[in-house]
From TrEMBL:
This is 2-hydroxyacid dehydrogenase. One of its GO terms (biological process) is respiratory electron transport chain. Belongs to the FAD-binding oxidoreductase/transferase type 4 family. Its cofactor is FAD.
Length: 477
């Protein structure tokens, strides 16, 4: 553990390592690194450093290790679980990777792109498109989140159904380890069985085992046609059946399948400028279904029409609209992607990112809704998500006209209601947002003790001093 007297020497050494452009001292600039984007988590830091190369990252880690100072890696700071925010001690260093934004190589023949950790997700999408390729990860924060953060949290997004999570999209990594050495694992190989697949240790580890500085990512053929439909549903059970109807007809051309409760959509209609209800009347649930193909004229509209026809025959759909152009596609997706921000306008938003087997989603929703209504009469459940892979964002808003502070004070109690229900259906309390500090201590109750023991063993091996993003992911014990 470092002492306050050692901090000035560390700051001077960090200045020498990263130069004046790499050491952030302006209070306004520092402040943006100390609080997450929602304002839910805040801390203090001894310094904020912005290295411009892997060698500089390694130098910073070595200096911090020598001083006994914890390092908190940070990308776009768009996370929801506090995993990229320093603690309140003021004795940790925030290591921002946002200056590391080079696209090192794009290899069309190998269908790969090699990028540094600070590259914004949207920039990777655009670089792939310029080469007539697709990088399929897509999520609401894609204009500001970074590849390093996407990898650190094993981000999912709206296309997991077809392309998988970041763990499925990465082939190789470059990682600065806790002792300052660099693992050069930037291999663009789809087959490599030479021992353990080490990259998967760092994907989803939230910077607790090392700092990802670059990655080789998979690319795919560009999408040249798509069909998007907005479908009104009587409930989650209809959504699960509709997935199977569409999948049977479309196969892997089914790219996205999102569901939203009426409460979710009502918040967007109330708070998002220009948002319009596609239907004349309200319905209990909705699905946003998207098919895509590499062929320019793949007949996807006809596939969707056939699927919807069967859905109406089986009383799965109450109403439906197929988008007629790019503007309408964007408008439909805006209804889905605007939910989180719209909910924040309604007061405290208690967010829970859970996953259960797809087949058990209807029973999970029914049971959890009932338990929450009993605990807080009038509570507004904002349930939506990537039901095709079992992932629901099961968020809670206070009853209308009730007290913010009183509702926020019950956050832990209500989280237990959601998580107890989740595990009763063989689910996970963290689907794609990570653990951070928000769910760290909950792992003691919801994770297998042997799994925690193994994870602590990996942490002790790779970061024996406990200086890589200390206090995140693993509970004390």
């Amino acid at each position: 553990m470092t002492t306050p007297d050692a901090l000035p020497a560390l700051l001077a050494a960090l200045h020498d390592a990263v130069g004046p452009a790499g050491l952030v001292t302006d209070p306004d600039q520092v402040r943006s690194h100390l609080t997450d984007w929602r304002g839910a988590y805040s801390g203090e830091a001894a310094a904020v450093v912005r290295p411009a190369s892997t060698d500089e990252v390694a130098a910073v880690v070595r200096l911090c290790r020598g001083a006994g100072v914890g390092v908190v890696p940070q990308g776009g700071n768009t996370g929801l679980c506090g995993g990229a925010v320093p603690d309140a001690s003021g004795r940790q260093v925030v290591l921002s990777l946002t200056r590391m934004r080079r696209i090192r190589e794009l290899d069309p023949a190998n269908q790969t792109i090699t990028v540094e950790a600070g590259v914004v997700l949207q920039s990777v999408q655009e670089a792939a498109a310029a080469a007539d390729r697709l990088f399929p990860l897509s999520l609401g924060a894609e204009g500001s989140c970074t590849i390093g953060g996407n990898l650190a949290t094993n981000a999912g997004g709206t296309a997991v159904l077809r392309y998988g999570t970041m763990r499925d999209l990465v082939l190789g990594l470059e990682v600065v380890l806790a002792d300052g050495r660099t693992w050069h694992g930037l291999r663009g190989l789809r087959k490599d069985n030479t021992g353990y697949d080490l990259k998967h240790l760092f994907v989803g580890a939230e910077g607790t085992l090392g700092i990802i500085t670059a990655a080789v990512l998979k690319l795919f053929p560009a999408v040249r046609s798509r069909a998007t439909a907005w479908v009104a549903l009587p409930g989650p059970a209809a959504a699960v059946e509709l997935i199977e109807v569409v999948r049977a007809l479309a196969g892997d051309r089914l790219t996205g399948f999102e569901v939203m409760s009426r409460q979710s959509v009502e918040f967007v209609l109330a708070h998002a400028a220009g948002a319009r209800d596609p239907f004349a009347e309200a319905h209990p649930w909705y699905a946003l279904v998207e098919l895509s193909d590499t062929l320019p004229d793949a007949g996807l509209g006809e596939v969707v029409e056939t699927a919807l026809g069967e859905a109406f025959e089986r009383d799965l759909a109450l109403d439906a609209v197929i988008a007629s152009g790019s503007a309408q596609v964007a408008a439909l997706w805006a209804l889905r992607e605007g939910i989180s921000e719209a909910q924040n306008r309604e007061g405290p938003s208690l967010k829970h990112d859970v996953t259960v087997p797809v087949s058990r989603i209807p029973a999970f929703v029914e049971q959890t809704d009932r338990a929450l209504a009993a605990a807080v009469p009038g509570i507004r459940v904002v349930a939506y998500g990537h039901v095709g892979d079992g992932n629901l964002h099961y968020n809670l808003s206070k009853p209308a006209d009730s007290d913010d502070a009183a509702f926020r004070a019950r956050a832990d109690e209500l989280a237990r209601v959601v998580y107890d229900s989740t595990v009763s259906f063989a689910g996970s309390i963290s689907a794609e947002h990570g653990v951070g500090v928000a769910k760290r201590d909950l792992l003691t109750d919801y994770e297998d003790p042997l799994e925690l023991e193994l994870m602590r063993g990996v942490k002790a091996l790779l970061d024996p001093a406990g200086l890589m993003n200390p206090g995140k992911v693993l509970p004390a014990g």
